[in-house]
């Protein structure tokens, strides 16, 4: 099965079973896979679909060893972008906010007050750097704790799926 803008899909899913909840399109999953590879190469660890303090869910949250937090909002189509009016809410939960898109989406429609990343299933490139804003210390701590707990719970679920009973 081919997806417009991608030469060939990867042979395995970008996330282990149980971490993809069915809300993401195939294109969004490919973008996330390439994006997370790039983030890793830049020294970030990342999680997908992280619930934030306001109840919203960020597509990708990345944390670096110095404590800096990045949120990346994935847009898999022009319609997906036009239907989204919540992205500004993510600014209060990160030091930098980016959009990640595939090469079939026109970059000029993406807001200038967020960074821009173009990704495919194999990698990504920062096209426009995001403006930096320093996150409040209490918010940084709360987001980092959510990040750590989500990552630990996901590792536990992979190692012992039956051990997560009662969730």
Note the quaternary state here.
single chain
Strand order of the largest sheet: 1-2-3-4-5-6
Query: What share of residues are in beta strands?
Result: 15-25%
* Mean of all residue-level pLDDT scores: 87
Separation of the first and last Cα atoms: 35 Å
Order of helices and strands: HEEEHEEEH
| Largest beta-sheet characterization | 6 strands, mixed
Determine the number of helices (DSSP H or I, runs of at least 4 residues). Answer: 3
Please provide a written account of the structure.
With 167 residues, the protein is α/β, with parallel strands linked by helices. It has one domain. 26% of the residues lie in helices and 23% in strands. The protein has helices at residues 26-41, 78-82, 137-159, and strands at 44-51, 57-64, 69-74, 96-101, 115-119, 124-128. The protein has a 6-stranded mixed beta sheet with strand order 1-2-3-4-5-6. Strand 1 and strand 2 (57-64) form a beta hairpin.
């Amino acid at each position: 099965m081919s997806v417009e803008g991608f030469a060939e899909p990867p042979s395995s899913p970008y996330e282990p079973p149980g971490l993809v909840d069915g809300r993401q399109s195939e294109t969004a999953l490919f973008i996330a896979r390439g994006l997370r590879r790039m983030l890793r190469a830049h020294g970030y660890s990342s999680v997908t679909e992280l619930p934030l303090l306001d109840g919203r869910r960020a597509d990708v949250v990345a944390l670096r060893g110095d404590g800096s937090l990045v949120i990346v909002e994935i847009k898999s189509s022009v319609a997906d972008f036009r239907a989204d009016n919540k992205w500004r809410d993510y600014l209060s939960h990160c030091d930098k906010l980016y959009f990640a898109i595939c090469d079939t989406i026109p970059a000029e429609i993406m807001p200038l007050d967020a960074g821009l990343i173009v990704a495919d299933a194999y990698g990504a490139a920062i096209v426009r750097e995001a403006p930096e804003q320093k996150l409040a210390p209490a918010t940084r701590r709360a987001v980092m704790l959510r990040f750590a707990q989500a990552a630990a719970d996901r590792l536990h679920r992979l190692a012992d799926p039956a051990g997560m009973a009662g969730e």
